[in-house]
């Protein structure tokens, strides 16, 4: 029986027999920790391994949650990690750099067929460049820091074929929310997924990042988008600085299920609180009064996402009293926004442009919502209390931009 | 009792309508407002602190109690605190039809017994398992008994690595049994 993409990546990093359900020892190419989880990784490491060395070519810190530190606790926690990194000669991608998973791709550390772990549940976003990224807790990561490996139960793989052509107004986020609407948290739970079909095969790198990031909300292990053309290869090469040669599944790979979805005519989607799976057509909620908007996150924090919002916002002003926050995923994205005039368009429209990082998804970096506040966000989670006491709706950058102009929930067609 | 067998009073995480709560995410278990806490001993009072109807759980739970949750328990973030807060309260185990993948690993690595079992849903829906019941679970065979009710149900037995880590105490102690640093 042939192997799926994930089984092939695992096989290339293990001497054990790889088959679904087997627990194998997995070699880890990159081990990382954030300012969230990182301090406990350091504490565990020091308690368990003292001053034993780490591999500085493969071990990193990325600070993105509270950047720069917005509380004394985070300041202390970040400094604890910095001191540890200095003692061991490790690189810190510090508070200036942005979302750790994105930085690891930009640095060419998370590349096709690699294994990468970090204290970020959205580390499986790395599937967008063919890397097996996995979020883990601080015990796991401390063990990985020292040993370079982890135990892992090989998951079953599922193929999701998305047929049909979405309406031109639908974006990668809408396609992602549509898949969440159709599959919820059951169909892909604890599974690896390979997305295929024309609607996903045509996605740009930014679109693949959006889709793969929310495999976490689908309760999946990792998502890959194997179909690609030369344009994507070039895009990934420019992004990571490394050639893009992802492993392919065997033609006779064994899938636990092949799920077909039809995205024909798909229109803009929105996830209502309290769950990313509670998805509706934007059209059904139009006119809902909205107080604030957030552009950014690991899901929608690329240059392309801000450019899409800026096309609607350029030369206009957000509704008076509406608070629009924009947080580029990384410093490199920030630089692109500066050079391309996107930052100026956002600024002139009234957006609050904040330094790179996790922004509105993390506690405090881009503020919190107050009780009764309604926010439309390009993020990936809207669980109760996640970003404050307010209600968070999840949508595309275009929907956030249109909504911020009108102060009520709107689609891009309402402001064109 | 050994590390792979345990007995205790259960808490079944039901909503106001009496249904098992599904998809409880780590922000409902241990809210991100408390993520700066790194000392396990301080985490107990925040367990389930953002889950409607269960915010008083830390004051009700006793060491040795067993938590029974709905499908996809521990979805969401990778925070270890969402496991550690239950260790701080002294819980003996968590049972659920399924867990978030990262949550499950975190619990295994920290030496907190976690067991999956589809039969839980039916046992609860039929009213056979309710909060306050005393249950006895053998994690190696996967057999769970509700004491005084002569009712039993099946859970997925511990995998070998899970049982090995539990016997050792946690992932670090298990790693040390493997020799040169954690290499099997």
Could you please describe the fold and organization of this structure?
The complex is a heterodimer of chains A (416) and B (184). Chain A is α/β, with parallel strands linked by helices. In chain A, 30% of the residues lie in helices and 19% in strands. The N and C termini of chain A lie far apart (52 Å). Chain B is of the alpha/beta class and 184 residues long. Chain B contains seven helices and seven strands. In chain B, strands 4-3-2-1-5-6-7 form a seven-stranded mixed sheet. In chain B, helix 6 packs across helix 7 (171-177). Chain A binds chain B through residues 23, 25, 36-37, 39-40, 43-44, 48-49, 52, 71, 73-74, 77, 119-121, 135-140, 142-143, 146-147, 149, 151, 153, 155, 185-186, 189-190, 216, 219, 221, 275, 362-363, 381, 383-386, and chain B through 22-23, 25, 27-28, 31-33, 35-36, 38, 50, 52, 71-72, 75-80, 83, 98, 100-102, 105-106, 109-110, 159-161, 170-172, 175, 181-184.
The biggest sheet of chain B, with number of strands, parallel, antiparallel or mixed sense and barrel status, is:
7 strands, mixed
Q: Cα-atom Rg of chain A, whole angstroms?
A: 21 Å
Taken in chain order, the helices and strands of chain B follow as EHHEHEHEHEEEHH
Radius of gyration of chain B, in Å, reads 16 Å
Helix content of chain B: 25-40%
* Percent range for β-strand residues of chain A: 15-25%
- Stretches of chain A where pLDDT falls below 50 for ≥5 residues? none
Mean pLDDT of chain B: 92
- The N- to C-terminal Cα distance of chain A equals 52 Å
The general outline of chain A is globular
Structural descriptors:
heterodimer, A: 416 residues, alpha/beta, Aconitase, domain 3, Aconitase, Domain 2, 3 domains, 5-stranded parallel β-sheet, globular, B: 184 residues, Aconitase, domain 4, 7-stranded mixed β-sheet, 17% strand
